[in-house]
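ENTRY TYPE: paired fold submission
RECORD: A
CONTENT: sequence, then structure tokens
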Amino acid sequence: MEMRLSKRMAELGLCSRREADEWISRGWVFVDGTRVDVLGTKVSEGQKVSIDDRARSAQKERVTILLHKPIGYVSAQAEDGHQPAVKLFVAENRFHADHSTTRFSPAQKVGLAPAGRLDIDSTGLLVLTQDGRIARLLIGADSPVDKEYLVRIEGTPDARALALLRHGLSLDGEPLRPAGVDQLEPGQLRFVLREGKKRQIRRMCEAVGLRVVALKRVRIGGVKLGPLPPGKWRYLLPGERFVRG
């Protein structure tokens, strides 16, 4: 079965499809040892795909940012007068305890996009990246990365409500994947999800008679929010991995 070369490159984890098209146009992609520079080229799964060292160098220069998004900012494009979270990516907002040796440059804003969403009235860890591999890892339909949230609620869930939150609810006509849901103390729940439908946790709670009053994402895979203050950001460190193990 044949497919577009850019799609095959994304499946192999080499880059995003957008990056693949860019590299193909620059002549940085080889199929079975032959340079390919025509967009839309089809390949089969049995063919070997490799990339030029220049593509690897360009990829290494791409940055990934961990931001503690405050309430009032949207994850992506500006809407209803609210600013996108990327506006917080300025030198003066860099976390003073960032241990990365990467130097800030305004050029790092080019192509920097959120890998996932966090509602305007939610806080916590938001990933912004120039690296298509990370974006696909975090938001792809088959993403293996879970996300952990601390949720303040009004109401007291009984055993049935907790069971439904863990598995048994549907949103937008589709059943939700099993979730990890635990009551940490009266008025506080911990959710661990492997999907991210719009306002999912709030809608799940509403379905069982609970109201969310505060929501904070504290972990994405193996990367934790930690002591990062609201409105501050830091670079992802070389040893940090979203996929654990």
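RECORD: B
CONTENT: sequence, then structure tokens
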Amino acid sequence: MWTYPPDHLDLTLHQVDVWRILLDILPDSVKLSESTLSAEETQRASRFHFDSDKHRFIASHTSLRNILTRYLHCEPGQITFQKNNYGKPFILFDLNLEFNLSHSDDYALIAVTRGCKVGIDVERVREDMALESIASHNFSPGEVSELMALSPEQRISGFFNCWTRKEAYIKAQGLGLSLSLDSFDVSLAPNEPAILRATRPDPNLASRWTLVSLSVDSGYAGALAVEGEGLEFRYWDWNATQ
């Protein structure tokens, strides 16, 4: 599924590039990478209590810049990010380029498209969470019922399927917390396709979106949400030290 990209990449309409980044960056590389970040990104990195979390943040955001240069044909430090009213970043001099970043522990995922909304999410699977309580406060009633109908051994996988798909869709919409988590339903059962089942109050919205479950690595769950149908997906591997 994941391959290393060619030296030159063209991204056309209806193509979606998904990048998997291993955040195993060395301390010397961290210092070099940090030099390409903006003052705002550097300030955010400094807020992390643990060095490992800071290094992963720097590695993921540096990787985002390096990857975007393949489409923008500029230097990483020349990229200036703006944010909409809900905090979703965009690039002012190429509004047609849509992208999204997510990172969790040792992995980051980046999605890049042209002309269609996109969101991505990756989560480290944890078994020490109060899954039922979290689901009851964040999932729709239908999703909660489906989750609780799963066997106990399937419930963890179902929970993270649901969580990452909902996060990816919310991030793609770019509306932040103004989009209620229970205003739409996603599939969640293990080994079933990722589907946006229902959207409220506009039921026709669901058919305009594509959800994809991403196989990141053992112990991780990932999902992608893209506005559109008949899309071509390309899956690229990227090392944070590149």
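NOTES ON RECORD B: Residues 51-72 form the longest helix (22 residues). The two ends are 20 Å apart (CA to CA).
STATUS: closed
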